[in-house]
Amino acid sequence: MEQRLRHEAKxxxxxxxxxxxxxFEQGSLKFTTTPLITRDKDDIDRLVINPFIVNNLSxxxxxxxxxxGIVAKGCDSRSIVSLIQDNKVARENVVILGIPCPGLIDLKxxxxxxxxxxxxxxxxxxxxxxxxxxxxxxxxxxPATEVLFDDCLSCEYPTPQEYDILLGEPSSLVCxxxxxQSKIKQLEDMPPEQRWxxxxxxxxxxxxxxxxxxxxxxxxxxxxxxxESEPQWVSLVPQWQDNLMFQVTRIIHVAGRxxxxxxxxxxCPVGIPxxxxxxxxxxxxxxxxxxxxxxxxxxxPLMTAYEYEEAEDLIR
Amino acid sequence: xxxxxxxxxxxxxxxxxWCSYAGADLAGTSRKKYPxxxxxxxxxxxxRVDPLFILKALRLGFDGVLVSGCHPGECHYQTGxxxxxxxxxxxxxxxxxxxxxxxxxxxxxxxASEGGKFAEVVTEVTKELKEIGPNQLFTExxxxxxxxxTA
Lengths: 316, 151
What we know:
The complex is a heterodimer. Chain A contains eleven helices and eight strands.
């Protein structure tokens, strides 16, 4: 797949079909990748595809001018479609190099499984539904379901829905719907006071670094409400009340564009379970308005579409 | 001597300038009685109400938020109230999931000729807010505050 990607990316640049290629290259740390944005075809050999390509690259689409070739997994392609729906990106200006995603490896899960730091691990390789980890010369085999990210295990569309070139056969990853619901269910079973208490505790750890907002492809406002000073909506002091207000407003603002890719949760340095919020929001809009983000590039965005009669039971 | 004052809910109302605000005016001129718990903010359209306003009101300690606009099909800007309907429904359901009582977020359609309905809505909403008690979501005196909640 990697060779094919390099070949396609190179010919796209050579033929002048795109000005830029956005993809992944090896990161500076072990088992990491970092985004590669380039217009130089000599850089193309640095492109990689491995089980650690976590970032949602569509966040860069609105920042790069011109035509772009972009590497996209299933979740990323939905974010791209959602950007097209919002007229942030023109379809003819993107060449989507789709990756049928077999699921990405969660290093934190591996560290827990083998109780070793990631620097002490020799190698991690994926083969089918098994992952082989080399620790101190010794090979250990684990089922993939134990080491993949939760959001990958509960992913409904691992193969891109929208693409120009699909690099491989459609993914055989099976969606575990119960897993995605289990955390939400746990919260819903609590009395409301306890739920609020739970979120107070989570958001008292928030340091308001805004990493969640920066990595989010749906958060494309030129000026975010938290930075407005007249009126100042949210206090700049990271106290839980304002942290909570920031995050809740952010998630409501991106409703209908958020594809639950899980980037915010992965980016969070203090580990706030943001997917328990984004997943719920996704379910809510599906249930209320029968809308799924990033599925149909021709569809009107959630917040501009309407039916004459809907959701009337909540209104007096 | 300090007098023990009875708690009264504070309600903020975002009223659309074309329908509900005029409806509230009519309630006044036709001498309809409704609780003085509502503080009215005039907005150009119910579609102007950002979920951020609702959260800010709760953060400031208001006990409830009422968003009121024109009936479906009667929006001065054609589609503003449809958009408001989607936003407010999502906000209400989502905050309910987080642990906010759904009664705190209210919406109604009140036209310029429905002074009576406006008075009714405010009366009902105020009654519901009295039942659920003061908004202590963002305070430390909240019931159950400091208990360990895990999930």
